[in-house]
Write a structure and sequence with these properties.
Elements lengths: L1 H12 L4 H15 L4 E8 L4 E8 L10 E3 L3 H9 L3 E3 L21 E9 L2 E10 L7 H24 L1 H10 L5 E4 L1 E4 L2 E9 L16 H26 L5 H15 L1 H12 L4 H17 L4 H24 L10 E5 L4 H6 L5 E6 L7 H8 L4 E3 L13 E5 L4 E4 L3 H23 L14 E6 L4 H7 L5 E5 L1 H5 L7 H15 L4 E4 L26 H6 L1 H14 L6 E5 L5 H20 L8 E6 L2 H5 L1 H7 L2 E4 L1 H9 L17 H16 L3 E4 L10 H7 L3 E5 H13 L2 H11 L5 H14 L4 H4 L3
Parallel strand pairs: 9-10, 10-11, 11-12, 15-16, 15-22, 16-17, 17-18, 18-19, 19-20, 20-21, 21-22
Antiparallel strand pairs: 1-2, 1-6, 2-3, 4-5, 5-6, 7-14, 8-12, 9-13, 13-14
Bound molecules: phosphoenolpyruvate and magnesium ion.
The site of phosphoenolpyruvate (PEP) has 11 residues, from strand 16 and helix 22.
Pfam family, one: PEP-utilizers_C
Cofactor: Mg(2+)
Family: Belongs to the PEP-utilizing enzyme family.
Length: about 750
Amino acid sequence: MLTILRHIIQEVTSAQSFSDALEIMVKRIANALATQACSIFLLDRHHGEYVLVATQGLNPKAVNKIRVPINKGLIGLVGEREEPINIDDATKHPRFLHVAEAGEEAYRAFLGTPVIYHRQVLGVLIVQQEEPRRYDESEEAFLVTLATQLAAIIAHAEATGALAELMENSKGKRHDLVYSGVPGAPGIGMGTGVVIYPPYDLDSVPDREPDNIEAEIELLDAAFATVREDLRQLSERLYPTLPSEERALFDVYQRILDSADLGKEVADNIRAGNWAQGALRQSIQTHVRRLESLDNEYMRERAVDIKDLGLRVLACLQKNNRITPQYSEKTILIGEALAPTDLAEVPEGCLAGVVSASGSGNSHVAILARAMKVPTVMGVGEAQIHDLQGKEIIVDGYYGQVHVSPGLSLRTEFERLIQEEKKLDAELDEIRDLPAVTKDGQRIGLLVNTGLGADISISLAAGAEGVGLYRTEIPFLMRDRFPSGEEQRIIYRQLLASFAPRPVILRTLDVGGDKPLPYFPIKEDNPFLGWRGIRITLDHPEIFLSQIRAMMRASEGLNNMRVMLPMITDVTEVDEALRLLKKAYAEVRDEGYDIEMPQIGVMIEVPSAVYQARALAKRVDFLSVGSNDLTQYLLAVDRNNPRVANLYDALHPAVLRALIQIVESGHQEGKHISICGELAGDPVAVMLLIAIGFDSLSMNASSVGRIRWVIRHVTKKKSAKLLHEVLSMESAVMIRCHMELALERAGLGNLIRAGR
Ligand code: PEP
Ligand code: MG
């Protein structure tokens, strides 16, 4: 059975299309189980129906026609129960539903299993047979195993749009193509897709219509010729010294290149409407997929050869024809793994939205997008972002969805929502200069998180009382070398001067984790538990000293600067950092700068710091909670992994209890306690943060207006009552629901759902 299973999976994974894969699956399963019928029903969520999409044994004309309501029939029952149902005579079952077009009158035995992906039912896989009998355990296990494979294929088809296309055919009407990810930055963005991809990376080359088919074919031929010649020269040079195995490799490469097939295939893809680079990607990927799915180890190894060759040809094509992105006036920036710098490269005023295939709402790209007020969807995952180039796109940053080439009605609906958002923003703007004080007189500091020079004006316009977190790594990330001390001084000075006399907290370099510096590579298996933040800068005191000297020089005459240390896990790190800070202060004063020693703070963002908050508070002037990392480390949930994004919630009861402990410890030492993670800008959380006793909240500029609005419409007393209530709850989901309801009841629901 295992061999049959492997063969079916191999065949299905190398199928040319989604519908071919389904066809192959039903035929092979029916064969393997020696049963007369095997069918796949997929769930059409739009209409609440299961659609027959492939069958062996039922009426083939009924494919894409039969639709079973979600709560009807045995199909519906399998979906409801989310477990296999094995019945010897289905016609006697109370949920049996006779569907005239199916042609299943003769079938009695029934075994159906749900197709589930990430806890969601995607469809039902069934087998049937004329004479009544129960399928045995091994047959059931076989079907269940194939259902898990089918789930992955459907999920992939959902991401690539092939599923929507299939459903479209079945209903005979247009379905808008929607990719789902996770919310990255709130808001709705409409514009044209611009796909960014790293050079010399075959998998991320986008599809693009060629301007001139013949010219693309010429480029391709030239690239093939160059690679052929390069390989010839290489092999000639190395031949005498090469062992025979490696020599054989060159021969294999030459043979692949010389075979008319590969070149012809790519040229056919060009003629079918793709440019040379995209056409090359298509062909190479098809070959690689096929080879990798084979049983034979030797053939699997050939996949590596094909990939390598593809890369060589691509390198030639890109050397001759590297396309620099053409940003449109309303650019929706799309990429496999966008970096903060990619956002900064779009001309000012042209960035309408961001879509990233990887990452989650807590990735730094998303944080930056929020600061820039650019609607963003992260982690659309396996979506075929290749073909979004030049397409009309709507980014729904509230729900984490990306609509591709939307129809008129959808566009109109989103335009209406954008208008409503503008109205809300105008209302928030009216209270911009009023203090953040609750109705019963509790004053809370409202500060901004920044990192880009460009967002200074946005932050000032938001009416922030200062900067609660300046991520100094951002200017470091945007260069191809460490910025000099003087370059840093100028950047910090501009920021400090723009906000003076309001306080500005500069955080020392926090690289590592998901913020590697391109010119300071760190290769680690577990970067979030590795060399990051203060660990790097204490190991490289020259980098740390250069930075804090630049900060101190920049503060002369302004005296509004504070310095904060990231990723502190141990008091000795603070002691060492303080020693270096004092040293830098003395040196800069010796240089003749007339400055005061800045206030120093520590970020509380790992569990050990929570338990040592009091000892840490004793040593410094203030504490600031980094709830993004604190949540990741307390819950052991990677903040960047979309697969576990549903487990990542800073309203988890464990996180709330940690926050309470931090604030209590800090206040016992008489120190100021703020929070600068994304939680501070979450309208749903703000009442709890007031009740916990934070002195100030620091957030993205785009959240300041909403948070000020919430604070001014609630009381500390009511917040304390809510905190008391949620502390009796045991899950983040319950707490979030409770707080959302409280916001709705207070008439503040529009702050969390954009006009919906
Ligand atoms: C945090 O971890 O909450 C934080 C503010 O720092 P960053 O997001 O830059 O890691
Ligand atoms: Mg952090």
